[in-house]
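== Protein entry: sequence and backbone fold ==
=== Local backbone shapes as whole numbers ===
==== Amino acids and backbone structure tokens ====
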Amino acid sequence: MMTGAKDRMREKKMKNQPRNVVYSNTGRTAGRGQGSQAGGWVRGHQTGGQSYSQDLPKYITACHFARARAAELNAMLKAVSKPAGSCHVFNALPKHMRRRAMSHTSKRLPIRLREGAQRLTARSQQATQKEKQQQPKNKSRRARRRHGNLLLEFNRRQRKNKWLETHIWHVKRFHMLKRWKYCLPHTSTAKTFRASYRAMNTHALLQDLSYFCCLELQGSEEHILRALARMTSKHTGPTFAAASCLSGARQGNVHLYRADQFPHGSLGSADFLWRPRAPDTTHRQLWIWIHPALKQDVLSELQLVCQCFQVVSNYKESHLVEEVSAGRKRKRDDDGDIERPSKKLLGDVTQPAGTPVSWNSSETSVTISDLTMEILRYRLIGPLAHRVLTDTLQPANEDQESLEPQSFWWTNHSRDQRLMNLHRQQAEIFNLLRGVCSTAELSAGCVLGLTVDDPRLTLPQKRGKITSDLQQSTDDRRVRDLILRGVAADCSESAVWDASVRDNVTHNRMSEQELNRMRSELLVPGSSLSAAAQSRVPVLLVHHAGRMRGVERLHWGCGWDLLLPKGWGMAFWVPLVYRGVRVGGLHMSLKHSQFKGEPHFPHDYPDCPAGTLFQSEQEAELLEKFKRRPPSKRTNYIKHGCLAPFICPWQQLAEEWEELLKLNEEPASSCRTEPPDFTVLRSVKVLRQLSSWCRPPRGQRASHRNSPLPLTHVTAAALRQEWGRSLVWVRLRLLSKGQPALHAMVCVPTTSDLQVLLKDGRSSGPQEPRHKDHLKDLRKCKASPAPKNKDSTPKDSDPPPSVIRSSLVRGVWPPPLPSVLSHCSRVTLGWVQQGDFSLAAGSGEALAFISVSGLLHTLLQQPREQRGVVLLRNPSSLQYRYAQISIDI
């Protein structure tokens, strides 16, 4: 076996052996003299096992021997000088001369090896070009994800949850949340909570509120006001007919109800904006901005009060169905003949084609239009919001030479001398904003219309931060007039109100490719580009008020809202970010409302359908989070005496307080009939009365006819008779340390608790005694069921099986307890909706709903110097904290 292996090794030909040199075994059997000449002398044994002769040849022919040796030497040199494809010229070099740098530059090699190295380089380049020409059947991932397919995929993924125009920018930097049929940014991936608060406090915070829905009403002013009066009430504050808002100079805010159902049938809050009156016409235009959770309810109610049921023939032009079918996964051998969209889908085009967006009324001539995502809305919060806008936006130039005639809306606008004069006035007012120190100095809700150039033309090279201008303005008198009087109503006009202008501006927007080409042709890199006619954009600046209630931190959190036509989202977003603003999401919107002390929709609207739905979803989310923790690590809410750790039973709270106080009421008041559902108190007059009663007296005050009534049993009974089954929004400030949490209990302090606080103002508060877990034995029985006993019957005091199962799952207090008021040692007044350590106040603050009847009963029982003091306890704690109630109005 060893001999056969050796023979096969001898017969194996070398890889680079020349064809003219053959080592055969035929000459081994020849004579001793001719064998070495014909076939060459070979060491070893013959194939057949016969050994060579050990005798030396008698003679050697010199020419034959030299020719054979020369052939061997030539074969060896050729094999060395011509390496294989996997080898390299460096193999011919000694080890001490081999360098990696020689593979890139052939001149580093010796002269005798450069030619071979150049041949190898040319061969590798030809092979690379050949591979590029031969396109593989299976395309690479990069080839499959080319730009056209990405557009189709993006359009397809917006069928279920719509994207904002800044979605791609946000998805790289934020945690996204799918809610209200939108994909919205929630929290930043970086730690920016304190930085965002500093931006709201000292600089500017930017938010994209384009997901808010805009409903447009057009028609006679009289018919619109008559219809909308059924959905509002003067008791809650200014309505759509407020004089300051009706002129179009200010933005207003109202709370909407179902038609003729005040104070019941609450829908939610809404912002509205009137278009300034046109001369010699009674036709008006109104925009109502609402939360997307309110859209269907408010839209159906508006159609009812305006009697708009006739569908107008202007449908949404959406070809999403065809594009989605074209964008589905195709076979690999597809020729790609399907026509792909050249632009990204803009606006609310995710609905199927033929969806109506306008409704008309033949009786009132009022038209309702749905402008969802047709107008973008950006919000800047902070004292330097106006400085960011004045640095980012540049009023459009009036030069006629740079305008192309009869091409864009701006050319027609420039021919009207009245509109050009208005544009000059608006530009002067906008430039005066540079002399204003803070956004809080401006009139709340003022509106300024403006036409600006494309902000991409003046985009800075590097990202910077706008600082306040410490130099005084050259025209201080006009700046003071602007601060005191605000913006005139005629300067609130803007071309963004016209749908034709919005469409023209959207479709004629200059592409990024064209802008980059213009930048490359600049003689001085980084200089500003010249504005063209298609770069004019009509915008609307709306001032939103900050904290307007109470006496602490007035005007905190004010800023500007920027309204744009669709398609211009990223064109304005990136220049604003380059001015150093901080970007926030939904979480910062909630914190902004919390620092202002205002309810946030839909979190803090329990009497609205959207608020009820949100609380049920929040309960499921908190319960699922509670179940994910192991049983040994869960908070035992039964032992803590917590009835509502996941959802607050507002209806039961209002009913039980009413039943409790009915025992001591007069028969006349106890015979009244009350609607079954609770309400939230929003009457300004009643809130002002309660606010004065909750404040402890501070010296003697002068009495006049507008002073509030004193708190007596008679006034409290009259107020309880009308608003007994209602909740009131309050702000709680902790008197000592502590951090309120969600669904913390607001309880009534006892007389001994108030005496302890009077002696020691920094007292931590009482403690709740630990409760007994009545369901512990039931859980054991569930784990190991006992044998059935026919004689055992359930007692009347035992809870039903459904209650036991729900209590076992939730871990909350079982309903067999007397009521929600007395489930712990202190009587419950309400629960906290928002609670945290407030960076604005420097202490723990909470926003809560409490019962009006319970509040009146508590105030009557407390001494005057301690009115409004309550106890606060978190669901996962047994420690009560003292807190002071404040009703900001």
Notes: The chain has a mean pLDDT of 81. The CA atoms of residues 192 and 282 lie 50 Å apart. The domain at 637-669+678-697+707-761+821-886 is CATH 2.40.30.110 (Elongation Factor Tu (Ef-tu); domain 3). The chain has five domains: 2-81, 89-125, 155-211+373-468+483-508+532-595, 213-327+356-370, 637-669+678-697+707-761+821-886.
